[in-house]
């Protein structure tokens, strides 16, 4: 039996959710405990989602998690090394196409800065570039604590409208997959911390970004194999219907099943899903889980270059797109963003592939390979305060919360939040043993 080698302090732990957080928690706990990993979908991976597309239909392309770097993704990097996951260099750059292509730039190289020749003679463009340098220089000093919004921060910094509307808000919206009008209410501290951690505030260049060769499905396959070898009870295509905590012992019921008892339950689901599953959530849990809202983003994998800037020189790995005349499109409440997958992953340039979020322009139907909707957390000051309270109370009633939403929303954050839970759980075990 797979659990016969466990120690005397073995606990039966349910992990709900098979994305990066749930997989990481199960992976870390399996050596000491009986772990049941329950996922509603028929596959593990969550936002690690690879699609076969391209001219021959055999090109792996990622549509969710795409890139990482060894400096800011230490847990993920170590996991990839442990599992011998093949990776390849990636190129990260940002560009924008505003007013239906009337204003464009790309930061892929120096030529991209002036892909639109009229920018050479536009003082507003030079003012924007100066404001970028000033922002990079002054942001850390002026941001203060976590109570200031980006709107308040920009007022304090005194940068111009072009910097705000044509650089910072589009770039921030691209990072968090959130519409520009919503970004102004984000905490300035969270934005600046991200910029610093990803080498966006310096003049020495970016960290070397990498991508999984063959798509993120390659790491998921290897991790799933490791979980199976460790004796984790994997239940795929098994939605949880409800969780109750009674007499210090969580119990849960899956669709069509009976109630099962566990020593601990770890929620590795989005906060809104967690709240729906918690049949006996107390007032504090309900308040804090409800405080983290989500932005739906419709994702289309396609081969239509019309979704990129008009000027090829302005093409970049991420491109923010705004409709002609600044008029909002049918999805103006969501950011219109395209990823150039040939720049991000080792895909031949003669097989153009793009991933577009919330397209306001029509994508040619015959060039569409795949469509999916992801939900990304929206970070407000209220949401950050709720995060802190949930982290402080983690483990109460043998209940644990983890997920990328517990941090900054990225793949490494999902893994790191699982590490937080596992370390706290082990600390509790040591305290009990003492």
UniProtKB/TrEMBL annotation:
Keywords: Oxidoreductase. It holds the Pfam family Amino_oxidase. The keyword Oxidoreductase applies. FAD binds at residues 21, 39-40. One of its GO terms (molecular function) is oxidoreductase activity. Residues 20-295 form the Amine oxidase domain. It comes from the Bacteria. Its cofactor is FAD. InterPro entries: Amino_oxidase, FAD/NAD-bd_sf, Flavin_amine_oxidase, Zeta_carotene_desat/Oxidored. PANTHER family: AMINE OXIDASE DOMAIN-CONTAINING PROTEIN, PROTOPORPHYRINOGEN OXIDASE. This is FAD-dependent oxidoreductase. It comes from Szabonella alba. The lineage of its organism: Bacteria, Pseudomonadati, Pseudomonadota, Alphaproteobacteria, Rhodobacterales.
């Amino acid at each position: 039996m797979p659990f016969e080698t466990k120690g005397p302090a073995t606990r039966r732990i349910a992990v709900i959710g098979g994305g990066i957080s749930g997989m990481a928690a199960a992976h870390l706990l399996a050596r000491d405990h009986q772990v049941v990993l329950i996922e509603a979908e028929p596959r593990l991976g969550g936002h690690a989602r690879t699609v076969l597309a391209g001219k021959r239909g055999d090109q792996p392309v990622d549509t969710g998690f795409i890139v990482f770097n060894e400096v800011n993704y230490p847990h993920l990097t170590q996991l990839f090394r442990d599992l011998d996951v093949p990776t390849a260099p990636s190129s990260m750059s940002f560009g924008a196409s505003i007013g239906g292509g009337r204003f464009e730039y790309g930061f892929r190289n120096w030529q991209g800065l002036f892909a639109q020749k009229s920018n050479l003679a536009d003082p507003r463009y030079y003012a924007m570039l100066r404001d970028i340098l000033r922002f990079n220089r002054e942001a850390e000093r002026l941001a203060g604590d976590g109570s200031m919004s980006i709107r308040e921060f920009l007022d304090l910094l005194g940068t111009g409208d072009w910097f705000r509307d044509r650089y910072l808000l589009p770039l921030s919206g691209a990072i968090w997959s959130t519409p520009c009008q919503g970004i102004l209410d984000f905490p300035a501290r969270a934005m600046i911390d991200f910029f610093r951690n990803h080498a966006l505030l310096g003049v020495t260049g970016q960290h070397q970004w990498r991508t999984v060769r063959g798509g993120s499905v390659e790491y998921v396959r290897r991790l799933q194999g490791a979980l199976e070898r460790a004796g984790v009870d994997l239940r795929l295509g098994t939605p949880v219907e409800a969780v109750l905590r009674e007499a210090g012992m969580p119990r849960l019921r899956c669709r069509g099943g009976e109630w099962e008892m566990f020593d601990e339950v770890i929620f590795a689901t989005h906060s809104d899903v967690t709240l729906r599953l918690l049949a006996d959530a107390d007032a504090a849990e309900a308040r804090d889980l409800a405080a983290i809202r989500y932005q739906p983003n419709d994702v289309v994998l396609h081969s239509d270059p019309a979704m990129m800037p008009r000027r090829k020189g302005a093409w970049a790995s991420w491109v923010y797109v705004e409709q002609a005349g600044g008029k909002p499109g049918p999805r103006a409440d969501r950011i219109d963003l395209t990823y150039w997958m040939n720049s991000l992953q080792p895909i031949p340039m003669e097989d153009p592939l793009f991933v577009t979020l919330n397209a306001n322009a029509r994508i040619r139907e015959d060039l569409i390979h795949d469509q999916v909707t992801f939900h990304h957390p929206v970070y407000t000051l209220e949401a950050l305060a709720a995060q802190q309270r949930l982290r402080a109370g983690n483990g109460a009633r043998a209940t644990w919360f983890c997920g990328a939403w517990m941090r900054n929303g990225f793949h490494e954050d999902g893994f790191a939040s699982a590490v937080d839970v596992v370390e706290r759980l082990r600390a509790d075990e040591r305290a009990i043993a003492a």
